[in-house]
Amino acid sequence: MINRYCLCAAAIALCAPVFGQEPIRFLADKKLWVLDTNTTSYVFGVNERNQLQHVYWGVRLWRDADLAAVRTSPEWASFDGVASTTPGEYAGWGSNMYTEPCLKVTLADGNRDLVLRYVSHQIQGDRLEVVTKDIQYDLFATVHYRVYPSAGIIEKHAVIENRTSQPITIESAQAGTWYVPPGDGYRLSYLNGRWAGETQLVQEDIHPGLKVLESRRGTTSHQTNPWFAIDAVEGDGARADEGRGRVWFGALGWSGSWRLTVEQTPHQQVRVTGGYNTFDFAYPLNPGERLETPPFYGGFTSNGFGEASRMLHRFTREFILPGGHSAKVRPVLYNSWEATEFNVDEPGQKALAEKAAKIGVERFVMDDGWFGARNDDHAGLGDWFVNPKKFPNGLQPLIRYVNSLDMDFGIWVEPEMVNPNSDLYRKHPDWVMNFPGRPRTEARNQLVLNMARDDVKEYTFEWLDKLVTENNIAFLKWDMNRNFSEPGWPEAGPASEKKIWVKYTSNLYEIIDRLRAKHPKLEIESCSGGGGRVDLGIMKRVDEVWTSDNTEAFDRLRIQEGFSYAYPAQGMMAWVTDVPNYNGRSTPLAYRFLVAMMGSLGIGNNLNKWTNDDYALATQMIAYYKTIRGTVQQGRLYRLFSPRLGELTANQYVSEDGKQSVLFAFLRGQQYGRPAPTIRLRGLDERGVYRVKPLDGSKLVEKLETASGAYLQSHGLNLALTGDYDGTSVLLERVE
Ligand code: DGJ
């Protein structure tokens, strides 16, 4: 159903509001929009100044009579006028506004004042568009909402349109602002880190002032991830935890430079504004042109961080990742990188493939080193033809061999990069981002191709399309091993050069979208030297992401825990690799398997060095994983013990139908004689009866064959975890 409303001469044309099951309603008498998910309501309206104003975001409301027409907040003093005290829903920077705006522009005549007023809106099922316009100029900002009722998520983004007859320059374009109820005592959670140490959870109190979470790197970044959560302190001082408490959360769908500002105003408004990074940002719009912001997704729960994560997981699986509801479970893959690095050739890869097939691997991926003069990271990037010494007969013999072993074939590419020592760079030195006459800073001996250029985009699409068309390639591992530097685009001209921050990423998205449309069976992993490009924008286009180059299992517990706050296990690639690795730690192979089995399992070991015992263990673990992967990848996660807080880490996954649950538990080190804490399970039916199937019976202290949900959740399981880096798994199958 489409409902259209418009404003003529400052009067809203009132039509009958829609009640009932519609997820979006306009209460015409109060000029309020109510956006309902199954569990939450989000309300904003048009105030007496004809501006959009936030009203409410929280537990679902059911009584429209509770809601009053919205009025601006009073001015506090001459220093804090209405523009700063009022929670603007999509505010332009103008008047005396001192909080973070959603939109800031400079017009051709030098005017920099922008005051947006409501014009009209349209409701279409679960979507709402609200058109706003400057009080004087034909500069339009249309704010788009989409409600995902089953997921409890609301999406917002904006489209800025220049309908004046002169060019304008956008200096800040944000998707929107989220508000939590006014007050003090909020806490911010976010994900921070570095290369090989991504997605570390940080929690800190929100104080008055503005905190910036951002990437200025041209891509999502290892350092900070575009996700946030804010939890409230209750009147009795109680904090949200995994199972309780009010948590508001959000994530931005953008893989270029981004920015989230978390702001507590002097008037106790806590607001989060997010979109394109404003740093070095200037986006000119000619008459008739538009700029669309990235989408910003948000949700609320009263059931703590655990439920907040589960909501995002379900949402991402169903509405973001390709395949949605019908996505298959991820295959077990083997990747040759840690075994061979650049030293790939046909016999070596075939030998690894044969061994991988024997342990139950379903996808064989050849990593870096197969193309051009690529023997290390100094040369070859950009020359995407098969290296004739390493593969004298091309890729076909290897791919056919892999397929004959009942595995599909995947290959590594790094399409956005070029080594100066390559034929591509010698032919097209102008294709990299650069400022003429200035140094071109190399990182990993490579430069960044300017994907914002349409000729570079076309070239990239063409070689990727050819590679996938000519070879039976099921999967691309799409890598990106450095961030932007000297982000110049001389051909665009000084007025338009800064468009690079947006155009690079939108062209990248276009390449992937076209590739997938032309090769619908092709799957892709987003890798950026580990987890440098993990966000809901890239996840809309890829089936999985590489979590971290750090595959050391104990470090991984924390990296994966942080990842799990925002993103689902289905998209989280996790490999088992050889030891010692990274920080020199050695953990048992079983422990490494168990850690990796909490995501989408990959094997990265040098199989040529494995003993018969290693093969036997790997075969057993992979077979076990195949029985539980649906639950891990597509089920509900309960974080029971955090690696941040003690020696024990435990995670439990429950299938959506509640018939299967799997527990993973890890002990870092045991004090002699001191038992590991009892693990009380979650997410089960108290009245249900479950068969208890330990991966290793000797680890179960009480030798249970079956147990009720009540027992498992209240009495709990005691596991005999001993020594250092011990781990185990217990499978539960509902029998009654
Ligand atoms: C960085 C990736 O994260 C690694 O897994 C590997 O693919 C290398 N690049 C290859 O150069």
Explain what this protein looks like in three dimensions.
The protein is of the alpha+beta class. The chain folds into 3 domains: 3-320, alpha-galactosidase from lactobacil brevis (Beta-galactosidase, Chain A, domain 5), CATH 2.70.98; 363-549, Aldolase class I (TIM Barrel, Alpha-Beta Barrel), CATH 3.20.20.70; 640-734, Immunoglobulin-like. The chain contains 13 helices and 38 strands. The strands form 6 sheets. Strands 1, 2, 8, 9, 10, 11, 13, 14, 16, 17, 21 and 22 form a 12-stranded antiparallel beta sheet that branches. A hairpin with a 7-residue loop joins strand 13 (187-192) and strand 14 (200-205). It is globular, with a radius of gyration of 27 Å. The protein starts with a strand and ends with a strand. Residues 4-19 have low confidence and may be disordered. Bound molecules: (2R,3S,4R,5S)-2-(hydroxymethyl)piperidine-3,4,5-triol (DGJ). (2R,3S,4R,5S)-2-(hydroxymethyl)piperidine-3,4,5-triol binds next to loops.
What's the architecture of the largest domain in CATH terms? Distorted Sandwich
Number of helices: 13
What is the fourth-level CATH superfamily of the largest domain? alpha-galactosidase from lactobacil brevis
3D shape: globular
Number of domains: 3
As an assembly, this protein is: single chain
Strand content: 25-35%
Mean pLDDT: 96
Could you say which structural class the secondary elements and strand pairing correspond to?
Answer: alpha+beta
Low-confidence stretches: 4-19
Largest sheet: 12 strands, antiparallel
Report how far apart the termini are.
Answer: 44 Å
CATH level 3 topology of the largest domain: Beta-galactosidase, Chain A, domain 5
